[in-house]
Specification:
The complex is a heterodimer. Chain A is built from no helices and twelve strands. By secondary structure, chain A is an all-beta fold. Chain A starts with a strand and ends with a strand. Chain B is mainly β. Chain B is 0% helix and 50% strand. Chain B contains no helices and eleven strands. Chain B is globular and about 40 Å long. Classes of the chains: A mainly beta, B mainly beta. Chain A binds chain B through residues 4, 35, 37, 42-47, 50, 91, 93, 95-96, 98-107, and chain B through 31, 33, 35, 41-45, 48, 55-56, 58, 88, 90, 92, 94, 97-99, 101-107, 109.
Chain lengths: 114, 113
């Protein structure tokens, strides 16, 4: 069965600190996609990244970076120099290559204080 | 370019009633998926529609049904509402039945009293 675990329920940091959100997944599939979504208080899930299981290269997009390690089944997300606007719930998700059904973790609530 | 839209924004129903939620996908998308998000939880997959047919279904009872129209918009119907159906219902659209990333709408907050 597929499963995504985000062990950190809540994280609180002060602005400009770096913060890493952990994600561990389980799947029997050899090919799959991994995702991160952001959910601000408004409720709408905002797509951040999709990573194919073939590609273990780390990715950086501005202050965001992602570390995919297939050997440990982890797909961690780091925000560098956090800002108050980064405050939100962040979800990690997994899907099969075909079909698109997303399996979400429980989410990590990030609070960035000024 | 309009994103995914959902209606209504909020809804209050009584136990036993029936409800219909609506979703219009992002322009150019042909696949719609529905998710239920209980308070403090991650979204749970309900089902996916592609080419007007249900293609995948999560672990939800038959009280949850849906439809996709020729213009790719979709409806989610829930019959015999239970208190436990209170949640945020999210619609996501994508292209090609999951080959590409899913974009979510703002959701419909359903409260069952």
């Amino acid at each position: 069965a597929q499963k995504v675990t985000q062990a950190q329920t809540e994280i609180s940091v002060v602005e400009k600190e770096d913060v890493t959100l952990d994600c561990v997944y389980e799947t029997r599939d050899t090919t799959y996609y991994l995702f991160w979504y952001k959910q601000p208080p408004s409720g709408e899930l905002v797509f951040l990244i999709r990573r194919n299981s073939f590609d273990e290269q780390n990715e950086i997009s501005g202050r965001y970076s992602w570390n995919f390690q297939k050997s440990t089944s982890s797909f961690n997300f780091t925000i560098t120099a956090s800002q108050v606007v980064d405050s939100a719930v962040y979800f990690c998700a997994l899907s099969e290559i075909q079909g698109g059904k997303l399996i979400f973790g429980q989410g990590t609530e990030l609070s960035v204080k000024p | 370019d309009a994103g995914v839209t959902q209606s209504p924004t909020h809804l209050i129903k009584t136990r036993g009633q029936q409800v219909t939620l609506r979703c219009s996908p992002k322009s150019g998308h042909d696949t719609v998926s529905w998710y239920q998000q209980a308070l403090g939880q991650g979204p749970q997959f309900i089902f996916q529609y592609y080419e007007e047919e249900e293609r995948q279904r999560g672990n939800f009872p038959d009280r949850f049904s849906g439809h996709q129209f020729p213009n790719y918009s979709s409806e989610l119907n829930v019959n015999a509402l239970l208190l436990g159906d209170s949640a945020l219902y999210l619609c996501a659209s994508s292209l090609g039945q999951g080959l590409y990333e899913q974009y979510f709408g703002p959701g419909t907050r359903l409260t069952v009293t």
